[in-house]
Task: structure prediction
Amino acid sequence: MKNGREAGSAPSDEHHAGGLGWGGEIGGIILFALSVVFMVGGWQLGLGAPTRLGTGAFPFVTGAVLAVLSVFICIAERKGDGLAETPDWIGLVAIAAALVVFAISVERIGLVPGVFVTVIVASLPDRSLSFVGKALLGIIVALACWGIFIEVLNLPFKPFVVI
Result:
C-alpha cells in the first residue's frame, strides 16, 4: 500500500485534468471573443495617429490586452489541477449589461454621466458596497475618465450632452 492506495490501482479522479473547466478555458475563450469584439469595434471607430489618438484607440488596445490575458488564462488552466469553480453568472450579466449601457449612453448623454451609469450597473451584484458607495465610486470613476480621456488625452468625447 502506497499513499493510501494499493500498488497498481488507478489513481483517484479528484485531480484528473481533462476537458474544459468552467472557470478556466471557457472563461478564457469568452474573454477572447469579447476582446475580438472590442478590437473590431475600435478598428471601425478609427485608431487615429500616435500623436492624436482616435476614438477607437482605447477599445482596440483594451481588446488587445484582454486577448493576451485570455490566452494566459487558458494556458494556466491547462496546467492547473482541473478543479474549476462555477462562473458567477450574475456578475457576468452585470458586466455585459454595463458594456451595453456604456455603448448606448456615451454619445446620447455624454462621457461623464455614461460612465457613472455604467459603474452603477456593473457594481449592482456587489453586496459589500452600499448604493451610496456605488454612487461615490461612479462619481470618482466618471470624473477620472473626464480628466484622463478628455483633458489629458484630448479624445473627442463630449463630457455632457444637453438633451
